[in-house]
Each structure stands twice: as C-alpha cells, then as structure tokens.
Amino acid sequence: MAQRTMIEAIRDAMDVMMSRDDDVVVFGEDVGYFGGVFRASQGLQAKYGKSRCFDTPISELGIVGAAVGMAAYGLKPCVEIQFADYMYPAYDQIVSEAARLRYRSNGQFTCSLVVRMPTGGGIFGGQTHSQSPEALFTHVCGIKTVVPSNPSDAKGLLIAAIEDPDPVIFLEPKRLYNGPFDGHHDRPVTPWSKHDLGEVADGHFAIPLGRAAIRRPGNAVTVLAYGTMVHVAASAVAETGVDAEIIDLRTLLPLDLDTIEASVKKTGRCVIVHEATLTSGFGAELCALVQARCFYHLEAPIARVAGWDTPYPHAQEWDYFPGPARLGRALIETLEA
Amino acid sequence: MTDYAPLSLHVPEPAVRPGGTPDFSNIRIPRAGQVARPEVDVDAEAIRDLAFSVIRVLNRDGEAVGPWAGSLSEDELLEGLRHMMTLRAFDARMQMAQRQGKTSFYMQHMGEEAVSCAFRKALKPGDMNFPTYRQAGLLIAGGYSLVEMACQIYSNTHDPLKGRQLPVMYSSREHGFFSISGNLATQYIQAVGWAMASAIKNDSKIAVGWIGDGATAESDFHAALVFASTYRAPVVLSIVNNQWAISTFQGIARGGSGTFAARGLGFGIPALRVDGNDYLAVHAVAQWACERARRNLGPTLIEHVTYRVGAHSTSDDPAGYRPKTESEAWPLGDPVIRLKNHLIVRGAWSEERHKQTEAEILDTVIAAQKEAESHGTLHSREHASARDMFEGVFSQMPPHLRRQRQEAGV
C-alpha cells in the first residue's frame, strides 16, 4: 500500500499493465518523452521504450484511428486524448469503428482499446478544457464508459479497462488528480494523502467494470453521483446533515442498476448530480431507469442537479459548477417534498 | 471604394455533362513502358515525376513492355484473368439478384476488376487489407468462397456476419480482409495503425489501406498520411481514382492538385500513379510498394487511375450526371479485354478458350448463388435471426441488453 495521487495511481496502472503485457502500448499528444501534460505517462517511455510509449501528431482522429487498427492486430492500446474537449475529431473512430467492430465483423476483429481523457471543470479551463461529455459515449452501443472518483478506483478500474476485451472510455475528472475536491473552491485543497481512498494497493488489482460503490450508507435519500460529484455530494450531505446514501456509479455503462434500485427502494427518494449539462445528460437516463424500477417506492420527484445548459464559462466557473450549496438545496427540497 | 473586383467562388465542373460528348483529352497518358522503375529504396524526392505520370505495361498491341513488365508468370496471368472474369460474373449475378428483390443493395466493380485482383497477388498470408466496398477482387483472388460472399449479400442464415452488415460489407480476417465500415476513409488510418502494430511487434506482416478518390477529402486520409510518414509504417496506401464519387467528379476532391498521388509528396511518401486497368502494371507497382514495406522502408502511396463503368451502387443512375457513352471513351480500355488480348498475343489464350472459360465461370457462379439461396435471402422466411441482433455488441452481454432481448422475446 502507498499513498498516491490520482495521477500517480493512473500512471501506476499503466506501468503495471505494460510490465505484465507486451501488447499494451501508450501514446498520445505529449505523452512520450514529456509524459503527458498532466504527467500521467511520466517515465513510461524511459522504462518501456519508444515503440511502446510515444508522442503522436496533434490528431485525435489519428490517435484513435491508429489505435483501432492496432487493436485489430491484437495490441491493447491505452491512448490519451489530452482533454475530453478535444475528442470530437476522434468521435467517428470511436462511434462508427471502435464501438462496432466486434459486432459488424461477427467477432473476427475486436477492439480492446482504452481511450483516457481528462474531463470536467474546476480548473478555470474555460470552454475547451472543462467539458464532461460522458453522455455522448453512454449513448453509443458497444463501448463502456468509466469515471473514477479516487486514486484507488482509478488504478483498479484502469487495469480492468485495459484488460477488457472491448473499447472503454476512461474519463478522469481532472480536478481530482491532486485531491478530493468537494466543491469548495475557496478553501485549501485537501491532498489525497489525507484521504482513505488515496491509499492504493501495489501491483496488480482490478475493480470489475459495472459495479457501483456505496460511499456513505444512509436512509433518507439516495444520491447518484460519479467523478468529482461524489466528493461534492459528501460535502453537501455533511453540511445539510441529511442522512443520504451516496452511490458512486464508477461505471456508467454497464450500469450497476441493482445497487441503485436497492438503495432507492430503501430511501424512497433520489437526487442525481453531474457536472455535465442538464439536458439529455446521463442524469436523464438515470432518472428514467429509477422511475421505471422504483416508481411505487418514490415519495418525491426525482431531482437532478447538473451544469447549466450553457457552454462551460470561464469567469463564471463557480456560478456554473453544481457545488455543495445547490446540491444541498436539492436534498432538502427532495426531503420536504 | 476598393481597387479590387468583387470576389467570386470557383466551383470545379467536369469537362462534360449528360448530353455532351465524352472528353478525356485532359488525361495525359504516357505510352506503355515509358516510366522508369526505380529501386525500392529510392528517396521520395527523387521520383516526384512518378506522382504525375502513369505507369503502364500493356501497350496497344497487347504486348508487355518496359521496366515494370515481367512481374508475373504466364500461369499467374491466366489465373488473374479468371479472377477478374469471376468477379465480373459474380457482380452481374448479384446485381440481378438485387433487382429481383433478393437483397437490398449491391455495388459492382465493372471496369475496376484489375485493381483489387492484381494487387492481391502481391500480398502474403498474414498481410491485412483495409478495403472499401469496391475491392471484392481481394477476396476472389485470395480464394474466398463465393458462397460465403453471396450469403453475406443475402443476409441469410449462413451469413458469416449474421445479417448485421449491409450487403458487400464483407469481413474475413482469415483472408486478410478487414471488416468494411461503410463510413468512408475511416479504414485508412486504421491500416496505418495495424502496420505500426506489426512494426512494434517486430512482425513481418504489412497492411494495405484502400480509399476512393472522393474520400481522400476526409480528415482520416490526412491523418493516415501523417502517421504513416512520421512512423514510417509498413503500409501501402492505395487510392482508387475511378473518376466518380457517386455523382461528383474527381475534381471536387482533388481541387487544384495535379493528381491524387501528389498528395503524398508533401508527406515525403513515395507516390506513384498506375494504369488501374492494366493487370500487369497494377501488380508490378503493388509488388514494388509491398517490397518497400517488407524491407521496413516505409509507406508508399499509389493512385490507381481507372474508371467506374457502372453506377456507384444499385441506388443511383449515372445517366443523371455523366454522358451515357462516357465509359466507352475511357482511354485506358477494359481490364479484362486487355489482359485477354495480351494472353492471346503471347499465344497462351484464344477467343474460343475465353468464351469457354466465361461459360464455366458463369456455371460456377450460378452454382454458388444457388447454394447461397438454399440458405435464404433477405426477404425470405429464413434469414439471419433476431436473436443474433443482440449478440456481439460486447464480448459478454451486459444486463441491460439481456433485459432488452427478453423484452423483444427472442
């Protein structure tokens, strides 16, 4: 066991997998010599050589397209898109190619591929370094979508993603790289070294995709969250004193619906929170599933707390970000409904 | 007040439209045998002229001439002729089957048979093509079963792709034929990635990417050239310039560039143009490029200059966008007739044997078609099952799909 930041945990996961499996290759913009703009791949080129960890031209389409070809050959590429906001040129290769290759070739060609991308805001990144595009992936058949909320999960889930025989989109909440951000931007940053889940086991371990984790058991209301919002939820719950059950989804697709259903049937209330914009966000899917499964147990309308339906602003970041105050109000309203 | 005249937009037009007289006088075609054959380790810069010329082997008299001649034996040429004739016969039958309502869609190769049939003979077991929908010659010349092709086209109970793919979007890993996407150009960068993987693993296999003239305008084409150039990937990048992208003439994608091959020059990739209707030239150039890839000398860009005689697919009528007689005016002739004439000139073939072979091939194709039809056609009662629709989305079916399959009752 060692205390690690989320970036260190992600690097460790790639390191473990590169050492165990020669077919694992890591590449992307600035990923090789420099080790990535967030330093996730730092040292991997020196350790595994230039043919297994290298820099690419600035072409997200090229990165994912080449990775699809490599995966069809039999490699296991784990590529980085520098920011999730930059993935759109690669979207066709993800949606029409990676996601459908197994299906359309009846399993003759498969695509064991991980596309890592830093996601979410909270770093004054403006429109082009802050987006949360997870719903654009969960809507696509044939890919899995993972969003870790802490170093230990990040490592275990990334190892599972690399080992998965299908393409996985691995969204890394960049505001969590160095600490469990609870939404209070005006307070000092807590480092991962002071958090339980900053303890990361050494060596190889995998957290199965498709299983949620209950971060806080409770009876009054179920909060469905993932990524940064797991910590925002913890903070909102502590400040309002509501006995909420916080579920960290971890994998959005496949979704651990059983855990969600059991919780909402117990609490009778549900608040969904994500940083991505509200309309057609993943919360809409969660809302539909919860009402279909738990309608006769619900004692209040399902509430959604999300980013406003605007582009991610710069100066207004903290007006946009669904922080603990907004979530707290939703919790109270849901309890009083 | 401005000193300049108002700006105006330039939109290229083909030389002739329906009703006009076909005119290919703008296509410069050197005599067969005229273009030099450089060593495979030549510097791209030293052969810039090959991106603007046309490598040809068969002359008007049906003789094989010049430095690119002689890459195939007589037996191999006879086999090649059979492959092209088989592809043409298969196309004719499947085109008819579509008209009879046995499938939804078909795309034929008429006029372009030499490109994929001859190229295939330069490849080795294990090499991988990333084809478009008009390279079925890669399968036929590689010995793939006509029955399986027809079953795929019919989406029947024996369809190797279980009815999930549009007709002609074949896939055969065993035959070095990557699953056809249908989204244009996506496969080009994938071919480069596959080749990079082969190099990463110190393997000996090479990849071939295929693209049409129109789709070179996609970003994927440029990403492929950048990656191939940067990592010197063991890949051959083939452009099939058949003059037409559905109704759009090649000038719309090519723009002000002299040729499509010239696109390679800025990337430092050796680029050659070849007479795509000349079986011998296509093979010789393919072999040259594959040799470069196998020797780890990096990528090669080949523009196959050919002509799409038929419609783009069963969904369009070329009479709406080009003169009806344009294909007859195409200056590079018909690939089957040219190879046939060459073999006759060599004394290895005759009109009589050709007719006889044509009849034999038709019998073979009809037999394959009948066998495929015994497993159903698209609209017959027996076709790929609804249950298969839910399989293979993931390696293991996730719970939500299991629920949906139950709901569908299949």
Q: What does this 3D model show about the protein?
A:
The complex is a heterodimer of chains A (337) and B (410). With 337 residues, chain A is α/β, with parallel strands linked by helices. Helices cover 35% and strands 18% of the residues of chain A. Chain A has twelve helices and 14 strands. In chain A, helix 3 runs parallel beside helix 4, helix 8 crosses helix 12 and helix 9 packs across helix 10. Chain B has one domain: Rossmann fold. Chain B has helices at 74-99, 113-120, 137-140, 146-154, 186-200, 219-231, 251-254, 279-294, 326-329, 335-345, 351-373, 386-390, 399-408; strands at residues 128-130, 207-212, 235-241, 244-245, 248-249, 271-275, 300-305. Chain B has a five-stranded parallel β-sheet, with helices on both faces. Chain B has a two-stranded antiparallel ribbon with strand order 4-5. Chains A and B meet through helix 3, helix 4 and helix 5 of A and helix 5 and helix 6 of B.
Rounded Rg of chain B: 22 Å
Structural class of chain A: alpha/beta
**CATH class identity of the largest domain in chain A:** Alpha Beta
Order of helices and strands of chain B: HHEHHHEHEEEHEHEHHHHH
Considering DSSP H and I runs of 4 or more, what fraction of the residues of chain B is helical?
A: 25-40%
CATH fold label of the largest domain in chain A: Rossmann fold
| Total strand segments of chain A | 14
CATH topology of chain B: Rossmann fold
Low-confidence stretches of chain B: none
Radius of gyration of chain A: 19 Å
Q: Name the CATH superfamily assignment of chain B.
A: Thiamin diphosphate (ThDP)-binding fold, Pyr/PP domains
CATH architecture of chain B: 3-Layer(aba) Sandwich
- The multimeric state of the shown protein is heterodimer
Spatial shape of chain B: globular
**Main sheet: strand order of chain B:** 1-2-3-7-6
Tell me about the biggest sheet of chain A? Answer: 7 strands, mixed
Shape of chain A: globular
Number of helices of chain B: 13
